[in-house]
Amino acid sequence: MTPVISSPLVQVLRCMGLGAFFIFSSANATPATDIQFNTDVLDLVDRENFDLSQFSRKGYVLPGTYSLALNLNTVSMPERVINFYVPADDPKGSEACLTQAVVEQFGLTEKSSLALVWSDDGQCLVVDSLPGLEVRTDLGTSTLYLSIPQAWLQYSDPNWDPPSRWEDGLPGLLFDYNLYGQTQRQAVGDDRNSLSGTGVVGANLGAWRLRADWQARYDNASAGQGVGRQMEWTRYYAYRALPGLGAKLTVGEDFLNSAVFDSLRFTGASLASDDNMLPPNLRGYAPEVTGVARSNARVVISQQDRVLKEVRVASGPFRIQDLHSATSGSLDVRVEEADGSVQEFQVNTANIPYLTRPGQVRYKAAVGRPSGMGQESEGPLFATGEFSWGVSNGWSLYGGAIAGGDYKALNLGLGRDLLSLGALSFDVTQSVARLPGQDSQSGKSYRLSYSKRFESLSNDISLAAYRFSEQGFMTMGEYLSGTQDRDTTGRSKALYTFNSNQQLGDLGVSVGVNYSRQTYWDREGQDRFNLYTSRRFDFAGLRNVNVSLNAARTVNDGIKDDSVYLSVSLPWGGSGTASYSGSYAGKAVSHGVSYFDRRENGDSYRVGTTLGEGKTAFDGSYSHEGSLARVDASASYQTDRYSSASVSLQGGATLTPKGGALHRTGLMGGTRMLVDTDDVAGVPVGGYGQPVYSNAFGKAVVTDVGSYFRSSVRIDVGKLADNAEATDTVMQGTLTEGAIGYRSFRVIQGEKAMAIIRLGDGTHPPFGATVVNAKGQDAGIVTDKGAVYMTGIAPGQAMTVRWGDAEACEAIVPKVLPEGLGSSMALSCMPTLPKL
């Protein structure tokens, strides 16, 4: 960036105790009007030696090229190179050249874009051609401020930007991982050590995201069971956003994401309208998984042998809500307890009614071959497509078709928005299939769905769905199993799903119900019921006492498994929480007490003890949200039975041409922001959670940013070092899915000191001259007799003093800085060599 004087003169005068000292030459001054300074009030020894030309024109910027962040109607956008030129009608002025590439980011309506006028052979916008446009430059924060009337802009809301402002981010490489290690020692039985992991390796090239998913497991058991190893690449794929279509294109291995047909794994290509590109209030919902862990446990959520989520949970009820919104179909849930026991069940995800705004069409299409985990083909070429059309206010028509080999299915349905009463949809699917050596089979499947979103109750969702399938109905997955001679039992008959979660704010009560029942034509059915309620209140001087009750029943193949969990928690100490829990699970009753606390650095820990079945158990866990990874450790012990310990690491690495960093991560292979802190290490930056600290190269990666959602990254000034300052502390942006965004904060780090600057001939630089450091950052303004208060300096650093239009001289800071209040150092400023 071309260095420019930018520190406000008023700050200097305030330090000198001079107050206001200038008057305008005209009462109707404009940004191009000269400002006349009354220097008679200045108590200067050298009255002739001053240079205030940089302050003489309001908003004046020396012509040149600058790297400036854009701020449009208080919304920050990435830095752009802006050229300031001299207008033909104002030889003493300067104006920012807003190129077509810059204007495209504004998100103007089509009508206002067509009315724009361009100058300089179409290179720069004529500002007056967009009525109401105001442009202001603040070089102190390196920001170009733009104000545009909302009438000329596309739709946006406080958390969502139009597609013209979306960023594809930097090219780069990424590696995300989640590792989980556990050791178990049994008093009776086999000891076992295990290590498992999942992750994503990827590359970003423009709008394209290249990804490869992997999963691995290592088991070492005693008693001669040997060692088990497994490592496999479960998925190779690439995708990109098509903002003009509001859709996502995916090629490679994928899982069919359909609102009307069951999911299946295939290799091919798909094009689908992406609900994530819609404003937040129009987006779909992700499924959630609930259950009860009887101890410190590992929960593994998978689909068709591919691990989707692996997480450690403490004993008691758990609720996992951060699954990807594109997840559909049946999910396999495995809860591995600390004592080696395992709970397994399935969760059937359900879709809300498929409604579309009037006049809009949403669609999905895919073509390919079904494939297995080893990338081998497992069926004939197939094609599928579906749509949803907003016929009118409240009515939507939707449907789809899928065909491959000797299988065909057709779906047609109707959705109705009932306004305050919710939304309702009904559809019918007809399938025709012929398995090898068998006659053709046909049947229908009927589905009825209802949902209601309560905006006034924290956006809670109620969902009820019922599906009945005739005995001759067959899904594509069931057809493929039949052609591959796999087990074809488990033909669905009826599926009931009901989810409700209500927040009764006035009473401080939360109530939720999850119920699903799956029946089959050829085997026993499955039932899952979960009821949870909690209330927060104040009692006997204690604030935020919480009582919760969770009851669950699972019926699988006629076997019932009931559990009830009661918990009472209350504040204890400064930030801690003490809890009592009583549980009934597996026909066993237990009682436990625990203590949870969060440390000042954001780490948290939990210790507890449980008494049940005449045995005593102890457990504890510790979580650390580090800059390099999230670390969770836990240990459990039960007298005369078992002991176990586990640790998990969740992190990643991101590398781009702008730099890179190791970091903790959330969604594997997901969207992230590379933050540059101007080569300053140890700067705390973050999005919404615990901050991460920039590495030795001044780089940090923030991963808690959303896709197609305006996210903020900020410097936590409360944790910033005393010798560091940041001119800007918050920046925003909207990234496409999987993007690596980039934001640069101007951070000044160094000491503060007074100095007296002398030129080679013994005189001083003029009043108003600017001192900048090696990065071009303003360090101070020269006052009377060469005095300057400098910030952000380092011993031995070269400082440049400028006045007028050119660099003037260079001073070297001593290796030992003066100590004590009122101390100052003498600096000799030598002329700089002319640039070639």
Give the topology.
Layout: H1 9-16, E1 22-24, E2 35-37, E3 64-72, E4 75-85, E5 95-97, H2 100-104, H3 110-114, E6 118-119, E7 124-125, E8 134-138, E9 143-147, E10 166-169, E11 172-186, E12 192-205, E13 208-221, E14 227-242, E15 247-255, E16 265-273, E17 289-293, E18 297-303, E19 306-313, E20 316-320, E21 330-336, E22 342-348, E23 361-370, E24 382-392, E25 395-404, E26 407-417, E27 423-434, E28 440-454, E29 460-469, H4 476-483, E30 492-504, E31 509-520, E32 526-539, E33 542-556, E34 559-572, E35 576-585, E36 588-598, E37 604-612, E38 615-625, E39 629-638, E40 642-656, E41 659-664, E42 672-676, E43 684-686, E44 692-693, E45 699-702, E46 711-715, E47 724-726, E48 730-744, E49 747-749, E50 751-759, E51 770-772, E52 778-781, E53 787-793, E54 798-803, E55 806-812, E56 824-831
Parallel strand pairs: 3-9, 10-48, 42-48, 50-56
Antiparallel strand pairs: 1-2, 3-4, 4-5, 6-7, 8-9, 11-12, 11-40, 12-13, 13-14, 14-15, 15-16, 16-23, 17-20, 18-19, 18-21, 21-22, 23-24, 24-25, 25-26, 26-27, 27-28, 28-29, 29-30, 30-31, 31-32, 32-33, 33-34, 34-35, 35-36, 36-37, 37-38, 38-39, 39-40, 40-41, 42-45, 43-44, 43-46, 46-48, 47-49, 50-53, ...
Signal peptide: 1-29
Protein name: Outer membrane usher protein
Family: Belongs to the fimbrial export usher family.
